[in-house]
Amino acid sequence: MIAIASDHAGYALKQTIIEHLTAQGIQIADLGCGGEPVDYPVYAEKLCRAVAAGEYERGILVCGTGIGMSIAANKMPGIRAALCGDCFSAAMSRAHNDANVLCLGGRVVGSELAKMIVDTYLTTGFSNGESHIRRIGMLKELEK
Ligand code: RB5
Questions:
Q1: Structure confidence at residue 85 (pLDDT)
Q2: Is the Cα dihedral 23, 29, 33, 34 positive or negative?
Q3: Which residue's CA lies nearest to atom 5 of ligand 1?
Q4: Does domain 2-142 have CATH number 1.10.10.10?
Q5: Spatial CA neighbour of 47 closest among 33, 61, 35
Q6: Domain extents for the chain?
Q7: Residue 38 in contact with residue 7, Cβ under 8 Å?
């Protein structure tokens, strides 16, 4: 199961993604917001805590640029968040970085590109390459 959250600037794209994934039969939990003005770190924390606790396999965060959400998410232990504006980055974020959170900029990417980025992110697996496993281990060390 996937979780998604946004601030007000990412709300419209969040709704588009929910509709897109639901139409594919993918279960997605909406952790807010409801479109009202909010502070993005609150929603980044909420989603990342749930992903890190194993409540959701992966998460998607949307704010205006995706930058605030990605900065906040990457401060959370156990989270590897990738801000992606293209499908190649989305694929690599999974294959090389085993990213468990995808960040998107609702004011940056159009809805059709965002849907392709999300589909790519959700369907690409981790490469399991030895060097990538080692580097992810090094990221975990940096958290300490
Ligand atoms: C909100 O206006 C905007 O600053 C926020 O959505 C995000 O882009 C921050 O990084």
A1: 98
A2: positive
A3: 64
A4: no
A5: 61
A6: 2-142
A7: yes
Give residue-wise pLDDT tens across range 108-131.
999 999 999 999 999 999 999 999
Pocket around ligand 1 at a 6 A CB cut-off? 7, 9, 40, 63-65, 67-68
**Residue 68 alpha carbon, nearest atom of ligand 1:** 10
Instruction: Kindly state the tokens that stand for 25.
Output: 């039969």
Q: The tokens 């990213």 sit on which residue?
A: 99
- The residues that are catalytic are 63, 96
Per the structure block, which two tokens stand in for 68? 């605030």
The whole-angstrom separation of Cα 6 and Cα 98 is: 22
- Give the residue, by CA position, lying nearest to ligand 1 atom 4: 64
Query: How are beta strands 58-63 and 101-105 bridged, if at all?
Result: parallel
pLDDT in tens, 75-108: 999 999 999 999 999 999 999 999 999 999 999 9
Backbone angles phi, psi at 82, to 5 degrees: -120, 125
- Tell me the two tokens of residue 63: 């704010």
Per residue in 8-58, pLDDT tens?
A: 999 999 999 999 999 999 999 999 999 999 999 999 999 999 999 999 999
